[in-house]
């Protein structure tokens, strides 16, 4: 299966760099709406057979133009929502608490899944719910599946599950609004990331694209 993990369009909380993870969450900004409208053209070469979005409003709004263009129903699943910020909800991402949120998430990606976001979830819980939706999508037999999800959750799952993406790589590559990570594989055989926002992904440990410091969640 080819799996396209798409971050949602820009929201007011993204502009303000806030940890905004609760359901239903904000709608899109004017720029976010334009980003969503551009997705059908950006993914024109992808033969998408199934389209998923999380329970947060911003992902469903982002998925809507693509669904309309392809004649697809948006399958809404809670499992691909953002990693819950818990007690850190609506704090600035650049604050000490915001930085700890991302450090905890990347510790999960490295295999230390027991720690819990204060008032939120553990890595075991976050990865299990995401895995369940991926498994559901794989079971329907579609060749290419797109999932509109969230920055921290996408980077966590990709770093934890793609054999060629390590934590330093994922931590150095913030995912822009409507940025896409493309993977190929299956739950049984494992996953390989083939591109990260259009850049080919090198094997873990080898030279690859670098980017900015760890960012806040989307």
From TrEMBL:
UniProt xrefs under SUPFAM superfamilies: Phosphoglycerate mutase-like
Domain of life: Bacteria
PROSITE patterns for this protein: PG_MUTASE
Coiled coil regions in record: none
A Pfam family it matches: His_Phos_1
Protein name per the record: Histidine phosphatase
Organism from which the protein derives: Streptomyces incarnatus
